[in-house]
Amino acid sequence: VQLQASGGGSVQPGRSLTLSCVASGFTAGEFAIGWFRQAPGKEREGVSCIDGSGITTHYVDSVKGRFTISRDNAKNTVYLKMNNLKPEDTAVYYCATDPVFGIVSGNRLPELLWRNGDLELWGQGTLVTVSS
């Protein structure tokens, strides 16, 4: 049972990147999955999450209108499309879920991000660097 994040890289401000999170060993479509990030010298923070069906999504204010989360359950994959990247988006990005806290949807979906320190399953992280 694992998550594998990929797609990071080094880009200039204003450019785009798409991160992927591939789940294996379990049916990802049964769980909400979140993207988190940790910038140098800062605590890890939630960025966005999506419910198991892909119908409900949630974003933190700092990325609203720039990031789009989506999923393809046939491929057991969750994506994070990041547009108009800013230097403050520089961080290691992780995807995560949990067998208990990942069973949320609707107006409870944001709880997945609030459970930052409680989630059981984490991907290995992919580095995004935004710099001119």
Properties at a glance:
132 residues; mainly beta; seven-stranded mixed β-sheet; four-stranded antiparallel β-sheet; 1 helix; 3% helix
Structural features, described:
With 132 residues, this protein is mostly beta strands. Helix content is 3%, strand content 43%. The protein has 1 helix and 11 strands, in the order βββββββββαββ. Strands 2, 4, 5, 6, 9, 10 and 11 form a 7-stranded mixed β-sheet that branches. A hairpin with a 6-residue loop joins strand 5 and strand 6. The longest helix has 4 residues. The chain is globular. The chain starts with a strand and ends with a strand. The relative contact order is 0.30. The model has no long low-confidence stretch (mean pLDDT 96).
Describe this structure in a few short sentences:
With 132 residues, this protein is mainly beta.
